[in-house]
Amino acid sequence: MKIAIYPGSFDPITFGHLDILKNAAGIFDKVIIAVAYNEAKNGFLTTEERVELIKQSVKDLTNVEVDSFKGLTVDYAKRKGANVLIRGLRAVSDFEFEMQLSQTNSALCDDIKTVFLTTKPEYNFISSSTIKEILNNGGNISKFVPEPVFKYLQNR
Questions:
Q1: Is the pLDDT of residue 124 over 80?
Q2: In this structure, what DSSP letter does residue 77 have?
Q3: Which listed residue, 38, 76, 83, 109, has the most CB atoms within 10 A of its CB?
Q4: d(CA 107, CA 37)
Q5: Which of 2, 41, 70, 143 is catalytic?
């Protein structure tokens, strides 16, 4: 069974993230979308909130599991029996950071490979940071996030 990990902060998850996830779910037997817990970051949503909102947003994807983790992504991947990490690319500007991250992970564990997947063009501009900025300024985010996220954030 080919298991892939799709790690990230997903704070909050967007249609761009879901596009990458759906592509990965079509390639791998199982994809674990793994919310990274980072003590150094003060998240917009708690890790628990993000996990729950992602679960609600991906309930129709039968080969997708939602989890959270602390520590190094490669260590988490090993614990889960995965040898592939999924990373999303929206634009060329993402590539430099993602390449460095991939090379670092490879140096830590050469058995785990990174696969880059691109979003559809209509999602290239969407980022969690943009969503938070729009929301904090009273804008409508319904075009950018799944319905469970939209409803939750509207009522928060």
A1: yes
A2: H
A3: 76
A4: 22
A5: 41
